[in-house]
Every structure is written in structure tokens, then in C-alpha cells.
Amino acid sequence: MSCILYKYLDITGAKCMIGNQDLQFTNASQLNDPFDCHPKLIDYSNVPDSIAKDAIHKEWEQEVFENKALNLRNDTWLCSLSKVNDSLLMWSHYCYNHKGVCIGLDIDNVMKSVPPMFGSIYLEPFILEVQYQDIIERPNAYHSAKDLFSYQWRTKAKALEYEQEVRLVMPKPGPMYAALTQEQAEHPKKEWDSREIHHYMPLKGECFESIYFGVNTDPKEKKKIIQYARTKLNPKIKLYQMRVDDNAFRLQAEEI
After folding, report:
1. How does pLDDT run across 106-131, given as a tens digit for each residue?
2. How many domains does the chain fold into?
């Protein structure tokens, strides 16, 4: 796995991430893929006799284990990154038709930036490479050699394989790192479900290894980001402009 992973963002999200020098973690139940981290990825129906002998108790035990899996999803926040910086679909979907940017992060430095108490249980996020499958091959919860927590966190549909996702997973992040987005803060809604609130992990400047500007990034916004990145973020940061390849349906990065 490359030590550089990439975050695709629209221009507003990119400026927030660069300006605040942080990494946003989203609750696993709030992701745009409804199958993500879903409890039904694991089969809890085959309760062995050693746990419960009659049908009534087996049904009850199944419900208990499924609730634990649901709670795991609701108590987990994660940050989605990618192994590639030139995905046409990612640039279209997450960078609003190539108008945003893609930020390269040095993951070794990111892990060194994890502050004390970012996690309530674990000291730092897990780094998990997503596994993609054609169908939901549900492992038996009681007889599987798989790490069920990891399986629930890292399994996605084969159709999304183009994302080449690697995720940082943080169960129960510390509440001191929770914050409303500007949009949430300005919303008339007074109370938010805890799952709707993001957590932000501070990053040191050296975590930002590179910035790639989209084919359609606004030149004025690009100029502002370049000036800030070079003077206040990381003077060694690498900057690239994405160009359309004249000979194929692909993007090429041209160093600035």
C-alpha cells in the first residue's frame, strides 16, 4: 500500500481541510452508501446449540448479536481516502465535475499527528483497505475465521471498486474533537443526533504531501490555495494541475 493516500473534495471542503489543517471523520451510518458497515453484512442466524438450545432463545440471541453489530456501526466514525488521484469517476462525483481538488496525504505523518484522546477506546485510527465483492458473502458470526469487526468496516460492493478506498476507522472518537459544520451551525435545527456530527482530527503541515487541481478548478480559488499552501501549510508541498489526455479517456497530472 502506498504511504500517500488521496482525499477528493469540492472547493469548499478543500479550503476547510487545508485552512483548518484537519481530517473529517463521518459516522458509519451517515455515509452515502446505505450498505456501508451494515450489520446485515454478517449472518447471525445460525446460533449454535452451545449458546442457545431452543428456538425462542436462539431468536433472542440472534437479536442480541445483531443489535451489537448495529451499535458498532452507530459508534464508529471513519474517513474515506483513495489509493489513486486520477479516477475520472471520483473527480466527477466528489469534486463536482472536476471543479474541486484532490489532496495527497502522507499517512505515516498523519498517524504521527493523532492527538492524545482522539479515541475514547483506541489510541489511533485503524487503517483498513476496503475489500470489494460481487455479492454479499455473509460470514457465519459463530463459525467464521474472519475478524467480524474488520469485515463489517471494510466490505463494499464490487461496483464501487473504482474508488480503491482505504479508510481510517475510529470507534468512539473523543467528544472534544466533535464539531458542527458551518451549514449545521447556521441551520435552524437546534439539536443534532450525535451520529450527524463529524469529528475532526488535527493534522500537521507535513501531512499534506500534494494538492491536485481539477481540470475545471476556478483559477482564482486555485491561486488562493497555492499561496496559502506554500506559505502557511507546507513549503515542500507538491502542486499539480490535472489535464485531459488528448489520446485517451484519462487524466494527466502536470506539476506546477
Report:
1. 999 999 999 999 998 888 999 999 99
2. 1
